[in-house]
Amino acid sequence: MSTVLARQLGGQLLAFREAAGLNQAQAADALSAQAAKVAKMERGWVPFRDPDVVALCRLYEVEDPQVVQGLLRLAKLDRERRRAKGWWVSSLTAGNLREYIAMEDVAIKVRTWQLALIPGLFQTPEYMRALAVAAVSPDEIDEVERIVDVRVRRQHRLGGSSPLRVHAVIWEAALRQMIGGPQVMRQQLEHLRELAERPTIDVQVLPFRAGVHSCGGGSFNILTFAEEGATDVVHMDGLRTTNWVEGVEESASYTELFARTCAMSLSPYDSMRFLESVAKGMNE
């Protein structure tokens, strides 16, 4: 199975191989393997053994110890993610969601930009249920509670001894869209304000009055990992699907985009006051 982290590592090794002017067969000789193994490694289809990473680095004349160690850390993180036997394995049927939640489980920080919805990690069950009911077909109504249960369990990462750090920037439209009715939205906004008081959570609001902004193309999340060799990964999160954006340059472009949007948004303190004002304006 291809994974995001393995594709990162495979892509870096592919770049080193091409820079060295070698083909897959020559790389395979260094591993006493077939060229098909190198092809699978470069596409992220298989976990990486440390001796293979070291052998390829030696062949490609990658001599910087920090670069080699970064690749080894990335390989280790991918192996740990593949071995993970978390609750999501049995709770979900969609492989893309299993991959995202496993990644979220080993991340140390998430930066999220949301255009139309409250971030999933911050949603109340009532808000989730209203979204799920609108998203599923009548013959899938039994799926609603399963979807809610999955998202509630994801929120456990916000607590515990090593809580996930979250920096959320939310467009004003997401705060005013009447999902589930006034009472559900008022409770949702009050819950969001309470979460924003935690030291591990930052919430900023991008108000309408800020004008044209750079993030109109869609919502996204940036996941950061502890390992220095693990490049940030970006994903677009739907109700039950996930699309990945990979690569160092692509990740850096989203990081820059997020930073520009933060600069246009209200400060965390002013955002809390803004949330209070919107919540008070919710009428039955």
UniProtKB/TrEMBL annotation:
Organism the protein comes from: Streptomyces poriferorum
Span of domain DUF5753: 97-276
Pfam families, per the entry: DUF5753, HTH_31
Domain of life per record: Bacteria
Protein name: DUF5753 domain-containing protein
Transmembrane segments: none
InterPro entries: DUF5753, Lambda_DNA-bd_dom_sf
